[in-house]
Amino acid sequence: MSERTADIDRARDALARDAWAEAFDALHRADPARLSPRDFEGLADAAWWLSRWDESIAARQRAYTGFAAAGEDPQAAFNAVLLCFDHVERGDPAVAMGWLMRAQRHLDDHEACVQHGFLALCQAAFAQHGGDREAAMTLAERAHEIGRRFDDRDVIALALHARGQVLISMGRVTEGLALLDEAMTSVIADELTPYFTGVLYCSVLDTCLDIADLGRAGEWSLAATTWCETLPQGSAYPGRCRVTRAEVATLRGSWAEAEREALRVSEDAVADPPTAGRALYQCGEIRRRTGDLRGAEDAFSRAHGLGFEPQPGLALLRLAQGKPDAASTSLRIALGGEEGRSFRRVRLLAAFVEIALAADDVETARGASDELSMIAREIGTPALEATAATARGAVRLADGGSQEALEDLRRASVAWSELKLPYEGARAQVLFGVAVRDAGDAEGARLELSAARAAFERLGARPDAQRAAALLDEPSGLPAGLTAREIEVLRLVGTGMTNRDIAATLVISQHTVARHLQNIYAKLGVPTRAAATAFAFEHGLA
């Protein structure tokens, strides 16, 4: 037996053990003339798991060519379908459609086989992407029937998942999620091939995050973590699944762990810019919340350089830097490019409410809040309802409606607590505490604000903790008819802060700070900043 023949035998054995790196090396050493179409198919799989995308596609094309030349139409069609999905991932829709037509041509006159199921799934994905949900559902149901006829677990599970996604896009969220869960039972039972196990894990996590079903995302994230630990080092799916799991960890409040994982993903996924960019965005969000504005700027910039739009994090960073106009403009542009009811649009709208309120633009904030409420009613997941209630309460509070805000913010605080999302819960609790204080319950407000500050401190959210502390230190009696916000501004004036510093600390515009100072001067009957500072010291405000 020649050395190159031995390499082929070793490669086939490695493929049987899912030892992708070993198989890849052995197949590369082997004489290409001696490789069968099945060997090239194995090389494509191994290269794919090792994130060597170009080599994977090249090998799969040779596998397709070999199967087609041998008249093995079903296997040629199967590889054409995978090439179609590969080119969709690469952002080459025309090439992807060409491979889809190739797959269809191989099976047009062929007797029924399981590959018809994979073809129907591919066609369903294109139909849904094109907005034809009825056709997508019909094709997914056809794939499910074919999978059951040939008892192919991959096709059955993928078809259930596809049907669930179509139902979710139709607004039938509960029914759709039930099908996604049913598909995932095949994953848990280890009934699927590794490739499609990964497909389902990553897709279900992305879907749950997209519709803000954060409880379900957390459950499947734990299961995905266990599965990822069984994969060979350097494989493709750990990077994609790990960044989703980092997002879930961020939501759960494990910020240090999430940032470490996201940084590792950004380094490991150099051949996968979308994944690396998404990971860097997570780093930026964590740094922004902890007060590391320079580090957040760097992460968002690097994410953008990899083609990932860093919103709404970048807009909120601009707000923290005292640049509300830039924050508002960038979010308006981002919202213009994000239609539909995705959780990404929800995040953009929630940030837009915050930025508009910081600029005292209550009407704009109310419009964004109303859209959030509409999306929450349509989809109905607890996190979306909590997001909408938080925004609605914040707008009512800013508009002077403390009593109306109380119920919204109480509901939001309870919902975030039940979802075990500490940062969002603490932010809602601060707003609830302010509403309670404005309603006349100073002791109740102190309890709420103290609990929120403690939560921020546990998370490491220093800017939020400082704001909660400033609210706690506010005296119960408001002298000279000053409002709560004017007291905050006056306290910071007493520390020697400039208008720019005050704007950054309170996350409002410098124009708003100047207006508050004018009101303070008028109410105190003083003409200068120095006189206002003296008043602050005399009344224990500085």
Give your account of this protein's structure.
The protein contains 29 helices and no strands. It has 542 residues and is mainly α. Among the domains are: 245-310, Alpha Horseshoe (Serine Threonine Protein Phosphatase 5, Tetratricopeptide repeat), CATH 1.25.40; 381-473, Tetratricopeptide repeat domain (Serine Threonine Protein Phosphatase 5, Tetratricopeptide repeat, Alpha Horseshoe); 482-538, Winged helix-like DNA-binding domain superfamily/Winged helix DNA-binding domain (Arc Repressor Mutant, subunit A, Orthogonal Bundle), CATH 1.10.10.10. Helix 4 packs antiparallel against helix 5 (73-89) and helix 5 (73-89) packs antiparallel against helix 6 (93-107).
